[in-house]
Amino acid sequence: MRTDAEENRTRILTAAREVFAEAGTSAPMARVARRAGVAVATLYRRFPHRDQLVADAFADQHAECTAAGAAALRDPDPAHALRSMVHTFCAYQVADKGLTAAYTTALITGRGMEQQRAQVEQVATTLLRRAQADGTIRPGVRPDDFWLLVAGNAGVIAAAGAEAAMASRRYVSHMLRSFEPQARTA
Protein backbone atom coordinates (compact mmCIF):
# COMPACT_ATOMS: atom_id res chain seq x y z
CA MET A 1 0.00 0.00 0.00
CA ARG A 2 1.29 3.47 -0.86
CA THR A 3 2.36 5.66 2.04
CA ASP A 4 -0.31 8.30 1.37
CA ALA A 5 -2.99 5.61 1.09
CA GLU A 6 -1.89 4.10 4.41
CA GLU A 7 -1.91 7.54 6.04
CA ASN A 8 -5.45 8.14 4.73
CA ARG A 9 -6.56 4.77 6.09
CA THR A 10 -5.06 5.53 9.50
CA ARG A 11 -6.69 8.98 9.61
CA ILE A 12 -10.05 7.51 8.59
CA LEU A 13 -9.91 4.84 11.30
CA THR A 14 -8.88 7.36 13.96
CA ALA A 15 -11.66 9.72 12.89
CA ALA A 16 -14.18 6.87 12.83
CA ARG A 17 -13.34 5.85 16.40
CA GLU A 18 -13.74 9.47 17.54
CA VAL A 19 -16.98 10.08 15.65
CA PHE A 20 -18.47 6.74 16.72
CA ALA A 21 -17.57 7.52 20.34
CA GLU A 22 -19.38 10.86 20.07
CA ALA A 23 -22.36 9.98 17.92
CA GLY A 24 -22.59 6.20 17.70
CA THR A 25 -21.91 3.92 14.78
CA SER A 26 -24.79 5.27 12.72
CA ALA A 27 -23.09 8.69 12.42
CA PRO A 28 -22.92 9.92 8.81
CA MET A 29 -19.94 8.68 6.84
CA ALA A 30 -19.47 12.27 5.61
CA ARG A 31 -18.81 13.30 9.21
CA VAL A 32 -16.08 10.67 9.48
CA ALA A 33 -14.55 11.85 6.18
CA ARG A 34 -14.56 15.50 7.31
CA ARG A 35 -12.92 14.58 10.62
CA ALA A 36 -10.28 12.54 8.77
CA GLY A 37 -9.65 15.35 6.28
CA VAL A 38 -10.41 13.18 3.27
CA ALA A 39 -13.05 13.24 0.56
CA VAL A 40 -16.14 11.11 1.06
CA ALA A 41 -15.17 9.21 -2.10
CA THR A 42 -11.80 8.35 -0.53
CA LEU A 43 -13.54 6.98 2.55
CA TYR A 44 -15.88 4.85 0.42
CA ARG A 45 -12.98 3.57 -1.72
CA ARG A 46 -11.30 2.30 1.42
CA PHE A 47 -14.48 1.21 3.22
CA PRO A 48 -17.36 0.58 0.80
CA HIS A 49 -19.60 -0.64 3.64
CA ARG A 50 -20.20 0.93 7.05
CA ASP A 51 -19.90 -2.48 8.75
CA GLN A 52 -16.34 -2.83 7.47
CA LEU A 53 -15.41 0.64 8.76
CA VAL A 54 -16.93 -0.14 12.16
CA ALA A 55 -15.15 -3.51 12.35
CA ASP A 56 -11.79 -2.08 11.30
CA ALA A 57 -12.14 0.93 13.59
CA PHE A 58 -12.47 -1.38 16.58
CA ALA A 59 -10.10 -4.15 15.44
CA ASP A 60 -7.58 -3.49 18.23
CA GLN A 61 -10.25 -3.54 20.90
CA HIS A 62 -11.76 -6.67 19.40
CA ALA A 63 -8.33 -8.34 19.52
CA GLU A 64 -8.16 -7.52 23.23
CA CYS A 65 -11.64 -8.98 23.75
CA THR A 66 -10.61 -12.09 21.82
CA ALA A 67 -7.51 -12.52 23.99
CA ALA A 68 -9.60 -12.08 27.15
CA GLY A 69 -12.05 -14.69 25.84
CA ALA A 70 -9.24 -17.14 25.10
CA ALA A 71 -7.87 -16.65 28.62
CA ALA A 72 -11.33 -17.22 30.10
CA LEU A 73 -11.73 -20.43 28.09
CA ARG A 74 -8.47 -21.73 29.59
CA ASP A 75 -9.60 -20.98 33.16
CA PRO A 76 -10.47 -24.27 34.91
CA ASP A 77 -13.02 -22.56 37.21
CA PRO A 78 -16.19 -22.04 35.12
CA ALA A 79 -17.75 -19.43 37.43
CA HIS A 80 -14.54 -17.42 37.69
CA ALA A 81 -14.01 -17.62 33.93
CA LEU A 82 -17.49 -16.32 33.16
CA ARG A 83 -17.39 -13.54 35.75
CA SER A 84 -13.92 -12.50 34.62
CA MET A 85 -14.91 -12.37 30.96
CA VAL A 86 -18.05 -10.32 31.63
CA HIS A 87 -16.19 -7.89 33.92
CA THR A 88 -13.41 -7.52 31.34
CA PHE A 89 -15.80 -6.90 28.47
CA CYS A 90 -17.80 -4.37 30.49
CA ALA A 91 -14.57 -2.60 31.53
CA TYR A 92 -13.80 -2.20 27.82
CA GLN A 93 -17.19 -0.54 27.48
CA VAL A 94 -16.21 2.03 30.11
CA ALA A 95 -12.88 2.69 28.42
CA ASP A 96 -14.22 3.19 24.91
CA LYS A 97 -17.67 4.63 24.28
CA GLY A 98 -17.40 3.94 20.55
CA LEU A 99 -16.77 0.28 21.23
CA THR A 100 -19.74 0.34 23.60
CA ALA A 101 -22.01 1.66 20.87
CA ALA A 102 -20.71 -0.72 18.21
CA TYR A 103 -20.82 -3.92 20.27
CA THR A 104 -24.01 -3.12 22.11
CA THR A 105 -25.84 -2.43 18.88
CA ALA A 106 -24.41 -5.53 17.18
CA LEU A 107 -25.12 -7.84 20.11
CA ILE A 108 -28.62 -6.63 20.85
CA THR A 109 -29.86 -6.33 17.26
CA GLY A 110 -27.94 -9.31 15.89
CA ARG A 111 -26.76 -7.12 12.99
CA GLY A 112 -23.34 -5.74 12.19
CA MET A 113 -19.85 -6.89 13.12
CA GLU A 114 -20.85 -10.45 12.22
CA GLN A 115 -17.45 -12.10 12.70
CA GLN A 116 -16.71 -10.29 15.94
CA ARG A 117 -20.21 -10.90 17.30
CA ALA A 118 -20.02 -14.59 16.43
CA GLN A 119 -16.70 -14.94 18.28
CA VAL A 120 -18.00 -13.16 21.38
CA GLU A 121 -21.20 -15.21 21.32
CA GLN A 122 -19.29 -18.48 20.99
CA VAL A 123 -17.05 -17.70 23.97
CA ALA A 124 -19.93 -16.43 26.11
CA THR A 125 -22.11 -19.44 25.29
CA THR A 126 -19.29 -21.89 26.05
CA LEU A 127 -18.52 -20.18 29.37
CA LEU A 128 -22.22 -20.05 30.27
CA ARG A 129 -22.75 -23.74 29.52
CA ARG A 130 -19.69 -24.68 31.61
CA ALA A 131 -20.89 -22.60 34.56
CA GLN A 132 -24.38 -24.11 34.27
CA ALA A 133 -22.94 -27.63 34.17
CA ASP A 134 -20.90 -26.74 37.26
CA GLY A 135 -24.07 -25.52 39.00
CA THR A 136 -22.81 -21.97 39.54
CA ILE A 137 -25.23 -20.36 37.07
CA ARG A 138 -28.99 -21.05 36.98
CA PRO A 139 -30.11 -23.34 34.13
CA GLY A 140 -32.61 -20.76 32.80
CA VAL A 141 -29.96 -18.13 32.07
CA ARG A 142 -29.46 -17.75 28.31
CA PRO A 143 -26.73 -16.04 26.26
CA ASP A 144 -29.29 -13.30 25.46
CA ASP A 145 -29.30 -12.41 29.16
CA PHE A 146 -25.65 -11.42 28.87
CA TRP A 147 -26.39 -9.17 25.91
CA LEU A 148 -29.05 -7.47 28.02
CA LEU A 149 -26.45 -7.08 30.78
CA VAL A 150 -24.10 -5.46 28.25
CA ALA A 151 -26.84 -3.12 27.03
CA GLY A 152 -27.76 -2.21 30.59
CA ASN A 153 -24.10 -1.55 31.35
CA ALA A 154 -24.00 0.89 28.44
CA GLY A 155 -26.88 2.76 30.06
CA VAL A 156 -25.17 2.76 33.46
CA ILE A 157 -21.99 4.12 31.86
CA ALA A 158 -23.89 6.88 30.09
CA ALA A 159 -25.76 7.89 33.25
CA ALA A 160 -22.84 7.68 35.70
CA GLY A 161 -20.56 10.25 34.09
CA ALA A 162 -17.27 10.53 35.98
CA GLU A 163 -18.22 7.60 38.20
CA ALA A 164 -18.79 5.27 35.23
CA ALA A 165 -16.06 2.75 36.10
CA MET A 166 -17.25 2.24 39.68
CA ALA A 167 -20.93 2.21 38.71
CA SER A 168 -20.27 -0.31 35.94
CA ARG A 169 -18.38 -2.68 38.27
CA ARG A 170 -21.21 -2.54 40.82
CA TYR A 171 -23.90 -3.05 38.20
CA VAL A 172 -22.12 -6.00 36.61
CA SER A 173 -21.49 -7.63 40.01
CA HIS A 174 -25.16 -7.30 40.95
CA MET A 175 -26.32 -8.67 37.61
CA LEU A 176 -23.95 -11.63 37.74
CA ARG A 177 -25.23 -12.48 41.23
CA SER A 178 -28.75 -12.55 39.81
CA PHE A 179 -27.64 -15.36 37.48
CA GLU A 180 -26.53 -17.57 40.36
CA PRO A 181 -28.79 -20.33 41.74
CA GLN A 182 -30.99 -19.10 44.57
CA ALA A 183 -29.75 -19.99 48.03
CA ARG A 184 -31.91 -22.68 49.57
CA THR A 185 -33.42 -22.01 52.91
CA ALA A 186 -34.13 -24.79 55.34
CATH C-level name of the largest domain = Mainly Alpha
What is the domain tally?
Answer: 2
Terminal CA distance:
70 Å
Tell me the fraction of residues in β-strands, as a range.
under 5%
CATH superfamily of the largest domain: Tetracycline Repressor, domain 2
Nearest-integer average pLDDT: 87
Unreliable stretches (pLDDT < 50, length at least 5) are: none
Tally the helices: what do you get? 10
Derived from helix and strand composition plus strand pairing, the structural class reads mainly alpha
Q: How large, in whole angstroms, is the Cα Rg?
A: 18 Å
The SSE string, one letter per element, is: HHHHHHHHHH
What share of the residues lie within helices? Answer: over 70%
- Stated plainly, the CATH topology of the largest domain is called Tetracycline Repressor, domain 2
CATH architecture of the largest domain: Orthogonal Bundle
Report on the biggest sheet: none
Outline of the structure:
This protein is mainly α and 186 residues long. It has helices at 3-23, 29-36, 40-46, 50-57, 59-74, 78-95, 97-109, 114-134, 143-160, 164-178. It has 2 domains: 3-50, Orthogonal Bundle (Arc Repressor Mutant, subunit A); 59-178, Tetracycline Repressor, domain 2 (Orthogonal Bundle).
